[in-house]
Amino acid sequence: MNLKKLDYFVTLVDAGNFSHAAEQLYITQPALSWNIKDLESSLKTELLVRSASGIELTETGSILYDG
Questions:
Q1: Cα→Cα distances 4→20, 38, 52, 62, Å
Q2: Residue 40 belongs to what H/E stretch?
């Protein structure tokens, strides 16, 4: 697991959507999306439910975020 990807995940959850998080991280939205998918792949679980209105944490995502 990559600490940068964990930082991206936390920033995304705090921002509430990919566009705002990408702006805060100074990366593109597709790059952020790819990094989150890669993090989920390495953990072998989904961390987020994506929708047009934003994101919602799965139970696993909530555990990872809250520590």
A1: 17, 12, 25, 18
A2: helix 29-43
End-to-end CA distance of the chain: 15
What gap in Å lies between CA 4 and CA 10, rounded to an integer?
10
**For 44, phi and psi rounded to 5 degrees?**
60, 40
CB 41 within 8 A of CB 9: no
- Compute the distance between CA of residue 15 and CA of residue 45 in angstroms, rounded to an integer: 21
**Which amino acid type is present at position 49?**
V
The pTM assigned to this predicted structure is 0.93
- The predicted-structure confidence for 15-64, as pLDDT tens digits, reads as follows 999 999 999 999 999 999 999 999 999 999 999 999 988 899 999 999 99
